[in-house]
Predict the structure of 2-dehydropantoate 2-reductase.
Amino acid sequence: MSDKILIVGAGAIGGFYGGLLAKAGAEVSVVCRSDYDIVKQQGYRIDSCDLGKWRFMPEQVLQHAGDYRKDADYLILCTKVTADMDRVGLIRDAVRPDTAIVFIQNGVEIEAELQQAFPDNQLVSGLAFVCCNRLQAGEIRHLAYGRLMLGNLPAGISAKTRHLQQLFTQAGIECVASEDIVAGRWQKCVWNAPFNPLSVLSGGLPTLAILRQQEALVRRIMREVRDIAAACGHPLNDDVIETNIQNTYAMPPYKTSMLLDFERGHAMETEAILGNAVRAARRQGIACPTLETLYALMKLRELQIRSQCP
Amino acid sequence: MSDKILIVGAGAIGGFYGGLLAKAGAEVSVVCRSDYDIVKQQGYRIDSCDLGKWRFMPEQVLQHAGDYRKDADYLILCTKVTADMDRVGLIRDAVRPDTAIVFIQNGVEIEAELQQAFPDNQLVSGLAFVCCNRLQAGEIRHLAYGRLMLGNLPAGISAKTRHLQQLFTQAGIECVASEDIVAGRWQKCVWNAPFNPLSVLSGGLPTLAILRQQEALVRRIMREVRDIAAACGHPLNDDVIETNIQNTYAMPPYKTSMLLDFERGHAMETEAILGNAVRAARRQGIACPTLETLYALMKLRELQIRSQCP
């Protein structure tokens, strides 16, 4: 019998990974709000840089998780993590005792909220290294990368997580399982913490220009994140900074997700990426003056955006 | 016989103070480039919040300092201090052996360039605490404040500086003389270093909003400037931060000069205000992580502005 999967927050990322799971034979339904009408009628058209083009017709297209009439084996949450997003409220009505709750989201220390709300469910933390855009309602373009990393909370890899990993692998996407996914989340933050805010605060520079002009600043930020991760009990590999620097030089110039949100007037993941890192540092008694400054500046930038709104 | 004064860079600040000196009976000429035609014809119309309205007809209106045919008692330089401004070249041809060179400009550690070029002249460092706008060519509005601080380099107060102070005082503007004007410059930087870059990097917030939202950040920046000043041999008063914070809460919300330059697409005084402070810290072996971050961000912002230009 095929796996029953419910994707909540089926925009570019959720639609893309949901479409892959459907390709792999799972019974995939979606909750999507803004594009509901189009997706309900036509499903998604997905155009991938390396996995072909296909149409993804979800089993059910829903406006609310509570409308899902089955017992999900996996509920995969793919929204952004912003202050106005009630992640628990979004999924609560579709969570059954056997539902594994998977969240493919950015940021550090975003686990507690879900752990507290669903103490008896399997919780799977996921990271996507992917470049996906929503072109218009129901149209997704997969531009580059795609690797997923999954792992259970607080640590380890369950059989159910292994199974999900296999489904993604069958669909042709690289998916690795991690015994310490919390460390993986910090590791991703080593890249996100400099490039996301710097792209916004610079007024829109792509990654390569930032790195070329201010490599020393980027390295300082990366070191602060690495030190916070270690203080939180998740030491990262010694080469984590060097690898991130070299990879970014090798990447094509790239607009970060925070910059795209900024340009579109959407809420930014400031708290998930910067605020939570700064709070972890304060809790551990670690100084992170550069992150503190970036965080304060992003809060000022957000205040300015709000003050411009009618 | 009246004092012969040449103002170089006679925009809002230079025109305003030049107009005051003319009121006090000095023979004031100006070098102004962009508004030359209008000022040559009509002089300046100055509208002050507390010193009335008057027309200031300069003795001579010139396009180049070298066109000045007299021996200036005082040459007062009032341009911005930006990378593309050759301060020495602007004034060299009008400097005579007895000319006191006065610069009323923003920033720290901006003295050396002039000291090296004119080792035998009296050098007077000046700070203006004033809010003046150029409304259009030849029209200046004085909005608030106006206090001047003058002092000789490397320190002390000469008779010639006292005399200039008296001229300003006669004209109705508060003018104090300082035995340690270099400390005065650092003291002004305690305010400039946070509010100027934060106003730009926040996307345009006025001073009060910045302070209300991020007082802790503002205080961190102020402490770093205070510590650099002390390391450079210019310890500031213990209450310098508290006074600046309270004064800023009491001021009407204010757009900084750097924000005005930014909005008008003009060069910003990033190096004079931030870069020089950071370099002084590095020279003294003092850490200033917040200033380092602001400075790097301003350089990224400037890079982004240049990359937008055709």
